[in-house]
Design brief:
Number of helices: 14
Largest sheet: 7 strands, antiparallel
Radius of gyration: 34 Å
Distance between the termini: 69 Å
Helix content: 40-55%
Oligomer: single chain
Structural class: alpha+beta
Length: 550
Amino acid sequence: MSASPLVGWDDIAAVAPDGLAVLDCVGRFVRLNPAAAALLRADAEGDLIGAPSPFTLVQGAAECRAGLLEVRSDEQVAHWEPARGPRREFAYRARTLPSDPKFTVVSFRDVTDEWHRQRRIAAIARTSIALASEGSLGSTLDAVAQQIVQADGLAGVQILTLDSTGRELRLMGSAGLRHWDAFLDRLLECRDRGARLCMLDTLKERRPIVVPHRWAQILEDPAWEPLHAYLGELNWDSFVSVPLMARGRPEGVLNAYFAPGQEIGSRTLEFLAAMAEQAALAVDYATLLQREREGARRNERQRLARDLHDSIVQQVFSIGMQANAVGVLGARDTAVPAEAVRAFADEVGSLSRTVLADLRAMVHELRPASSLRLGLEDAVTTLVKSTENRTGLSIRLDCGHQVDTVEPELAEDMYRIVGEAIHNVVKHAEATTVTIRLAVHDHTLTAAIRDDGRGITGSGGRRAAQENEDGEAATATGQHGYGLRTMRERTERWGGTMRIRSGARSGTTVRVVIPLPVRVPESPPGSGGSGSIPAAVPLRETENPARSGS
């Protein structure tokens, strides 16, 4: 005697919480349960019958070993673009119907929000790992921006940092936006024309600022015209600026550009705040590390200068005194031939004076701060003349009239970069002439050092550098490695870029581009007339951020 089923399978499918669908042999919907129709945003189950499904007809997904920070599982993933609403992600499993292999049964569920949260957690974890690496601050903040864009599918992200005085902003990290050296210069131009910079409100109020439909506002405001073309390269709509806070003080801002249709809810702002905190930690760590390095370098320069003066310089001076004494002895009427003694004295005296002059030049190069007080141009000019006198190298120096307006810390780093480039030419290039150009243009400090030498080569004389597609020389480890790495670190400290072009017949050109910082005003400038941007919308905990101020 067989027992009759208590509940029919159709009744079970009707109340099943997951979506159930039957597909034909080409992947079209044949039947849907109510949960499936709801997940697919269909008004009724019959609306999608005969329509192509997003599911692949595979007998189960291959086993996938997900890493610690990965969000994959043994389910397959399908993306669905409904007629209304945002894109959805479905995790599903498919099985062929045993009674009729032409049909496939699919069980699926909506994992859009769940996997979105997992991607955010993974982004925070990966960012923490990046902070523990030895990369430069610029590369670290680029990685933070990239993680945000990948996790939330944003149009773009920028991370700007404040200098030690809290008065100047530098663009140090970005993702989704094309790198443009003139960006900060154009931003200053917009501000001077009356445009309101919401990130300044963020720094002042020390809380996130949300501006719905910001791109439409910017397009309508003529004050933003210098950035219309650049910002128009992004497909974006709304804007959020989040402060980077460390030790109770703002270290910069994180600017997020949202794609059209993306909602800015409380969870989104929590994620941006968490990533901003990671970025602030990176900035704070880099600041502390830089102070430690600068202190160590300063102490080392002082120690070397003291040692040179107290020991070597005095010893060489003693040699000169001894030479004078021998000259005195040679002047006496003794068995020692006077001519020989005088010749010896002249030789030793000449040698001591040469060595003493060289050592004093070394002390000067180790302590360039006094020269830099007069300006970057004077410091580099002194270095060039010293190098020409010592080596016979012909060096042409061309400095723009605004070079001496560069702040002292940046001037010293640029001095060191130029000095290291000249040192490399003298030691390795076998060049006869060098051209150095320093200029400030479009709110950017640039330096170009070009020689007519043999190019970057390895210690064995074989070619050790090849230009990549960006024209940057990929240098093998060797004599050049440490110096070039130090030059690059000094450049990236200020958010700049360094490019090297080298050829066996064309010599080597080192080009450094460093955007100058944006000056933060005492208070945000007022509106610029009828076409000005409305005030930014501060976030309130009790309201939906996406609708704030709309």
